[in-house]
C-alpha cells in the first residue's frame, strides 16, 4: 500500500509530461503569412518622431510657452512708440524667442528615448539607429520651418494691426536675406539642440550645457582680451547676430560657418556616432 501511494504521483506526473509532448511537437516552426520585404519607410519614421515631439505634455507646454512669449513681445512692441516699428523689428521679436526656446523641443526629441526608456521599443522596431537619428533631425527641422512661417505671419499681422489701429508709419521694406537670416537663426539653434541631445542623451545635462556653455564662452570672449579674436570666429551667438541685418560680408559668412561647424556640425556628428553605439536598456 505504501509503495503504491508513493509511486502513483510520479506516474501521474509522467503521464502529464507525455501528454504535453505531442502539443509541443505540433507547434508551428514559424508564423504563417507573408514576410516584409523592406524596412520601415523613412517618411513613416519622420511622422512618428513628429508625433513624439508634439503629442506629449512636455512638447505641448513648450510650444505653448513659445506662443505666449511671442505674443507678449508683439504686444509690447504694439504698445510702445505707438507701434511705429519697421517690419524687421516685429520679425525679430517673433524669431528671437522661438530660436531660444524651440531647441529644447529638439533636445527632448532625443533624450526622451533614454529618460523614459522607450529606446528599446524604438530600436527594436527600427534597428538601424542612424535612420532614427536622421528622422529625429528631419522632424525637428520641419517643426522649425513651421515655426519660421508662423513667426512671419504673426509679425506681419502685428505690424499691420499697428498701422491700421494706431496709425503707425512702420515700413514694410525688408531685405530678403534678413528673412533667410531669421530662418537660419531659428534652424541653427534647433539643430544644435538636437545635436546636444544626441551627444548627452540626458535631458538636464543637454539643456544646461546648451544654455550655459555658449553663454560662458561669450562672457569669456568679452572679458579676456586675447580671446576676443577667437570669439569672432567661434562664438555662435555673435556670428549669428548679423543674420537679422540683411547683409553679410564674406568674412562674416566664414565666421558663421566656422562657429556652426564647431557648435552644430561637430556635436551632431559625435552625437549620431554615440547614439548608434550606446547601450539600450
UniProtKB/TrEMBL annotation:
Keywords: Membrane, Transmembrane, Transmembrane helix. The chain crosses the membrane at residues 61-79, 91-111, 132-157, 177-200, 207-227, 253-275. Coiled coil: none annotated. This is ABC-type transport system involved in multi-copper enzyme maturation permease subunit.
Amino acid at each position: 500500500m505504501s509503495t503504491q501511494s508513493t509511486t502513483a504521483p510520479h506516474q501521474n506526473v509522467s503521464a502529464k509530461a507525455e501528454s504535453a509532448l505531442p502539443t509541443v511537437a505540433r507547434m508551428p516552426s514559424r508564423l504563417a503569412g507573408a514576410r516584409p520585404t523592406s524596412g520601415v519607410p523613412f517618411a513613416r519614421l519622420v511622422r512618428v518622431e513628429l508625433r513624439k515631439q508634439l503629442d506629449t505634455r512636455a512638447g505641448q507646454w513648450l510650444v505653448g510657452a513659445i506662443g505666449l512669449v511671442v505674443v507678449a513681445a508683439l504686444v509690447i512692441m504694439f504698445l510702445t512708440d505707438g507701434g511705429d516699428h519697421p517690419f524687421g523689428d516685429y520679425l525679430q521679436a517673433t524669431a528671437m524667442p522661438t530660436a531660444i526656446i524651440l531647441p529644447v523641443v529638439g533636445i527632448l526629441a532625443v533624450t526622451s528615448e533614454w529618460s523614459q526608456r522607450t529606446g528599446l521599443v524604438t530600436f527594436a522596431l527600427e534597428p538601424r539607429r542612424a535612420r532614427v537619428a536622421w528622422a529625429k533631425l528631419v522632424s525637428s527641422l520641419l517643426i522649425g520651418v513651421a515655426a519660421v512661417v508662423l513667426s512671419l505671419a504673426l509679425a506681419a499681422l502685428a505690424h499691420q494691426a499697428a498701422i491700421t489701429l494706431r496709425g503707425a508709419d512702420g515700413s514694410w521694406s525688408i531685405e530678403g536675406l534678413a528673412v533667410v537670416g531669421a530662418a537660419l537663426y531659428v534652424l541653427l539653434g534647433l539643430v544644435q539642440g538636437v545635436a546636444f541631445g544626441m551627444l548627452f542623451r540626458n535631458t538636464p545635462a543637454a539643456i544646461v550645457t546648451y544654455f550655459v556653455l555658449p553663454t560662458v564662452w561669450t562672457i569669456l570672449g568679452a572679458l579676456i582680451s586675447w580671446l576676443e579674436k577667437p570669439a569672432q570666429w567661434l562664438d555662435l551667438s555673435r556670428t549669428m547676430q548679423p543674420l537679422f541685418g540683411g547683409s553679410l560680408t564674406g568674412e562674416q559668412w566664414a565666421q558663421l560657418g566656422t562657429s556652426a561647424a564647431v557648435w552644430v556640425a561637430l556635436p551632431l556628428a559625435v552625437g549620431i556616432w554615440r547614439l548608434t553605439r550606446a547601450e539600450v536598456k
